[in-house]
What we know:
Strand content: 35-45%
Structural class: alpha+beta
Number of helices: 3
Strand order of the largest sheet: 2-9-12-11-10-13
Helix content: 25-40%
Amino acid sequence: MSARYLLLAGVALGVSISAGCGTSAAPAQKSQSSGAPATVSIVAVESHKLNTNLSLPAQTMAYESVAIFPKVTGFIEKMPVDRGSHVKSGQLIVSLSAPELLAQRSQAEANLQTAQSHLAAAQAKLISDEGTYQHLATAAKTPGVVAGNDLQVAEQSSAADRAQVEAAQHGVLAAKDALHSIAQLESYLEIRAPFDGVVTERNLHPGALVGPSSGQSGAQPILRIEDIGRLRLVVPVPELYASGVREGQMVAFTVPAYPGQIFHAPIARVSHDINQNTRTMAVELDVRNKQITPGTFANVQWPVQREYPTLFVPAAAITTNLQRTFVIRVRDGKTEWVDVKSGATAGGKTEVFGDLKDGDQVAVPASDELAPGTPVVAHLAKSS
């Protein structure tokens, strides 16, 4: 039994020694293989002018849209239009009644009559006093006929009368202005359409008390009218693609309501202002297609062009770590990290801006595991 035990122990010891020799050989093989340069695929940096289309979301709006509020307080008496009604510019759409305006008009007319009577009385007195003054002035040419004091009093009375006439004339003008103001307010009792369009909203009905929009009663508009024969397609263009926008350029777009149809509209208005919150610039297309409803979302094929050449690399050639975005340039058999900023994408390649030039060779795919200064063996990547 002891001999058999010793034999098994010897076999176990041999296996252990053999396994130990195997593990000590592996690091040496790895160290030997790690000395060889890494093999990487490379592509050349290309330079050309950007000319592509970018898919951007947009929304249609009525060319003109107005909420109808009353300018005076009153009751809705008539409303001959409703939601969906087509109206013409100047058409009567709401009639109001305001009994207090009738009383104000009567008072204004009475004030005007009073002012006119005061003016007539002042003018009559002026004529009389000026006649007296002229008579005394003629008589005073004969010495001793008229006392000098009487002539002076007559002259002052005429001057006072002229001032009274002037004041009465101002009173008449003020009374006329007040009456005109009342008449203007009465004209506001009839609300007319400001332009050709469609009633898209109706919130109130005859009998409702309404007032100016600045008041609590005017928080809700009576009607809303929109010009739907002409639309604004508002496109929020990202800041990166805002350069080179040209008014008059035709742009294609689609809307969900008409799948498969492609519409076209020219660039009509450019805001030339970047929104600080969204970093976009609002651009409007002028849509004259009556199929599309205001408020519809659209997908715009926005043209992105540059007048000067820029550099492009495959998207896989750009990598990012916690500190930087870069490409790995291969030069003289070694790697270099070159910081870049990404731009537009066209033809499967991404625009880059950095310390690169046309023809530079960059690794693809890029990885931050390939440290700067690493010796590499480069071969051209296969074109996909």
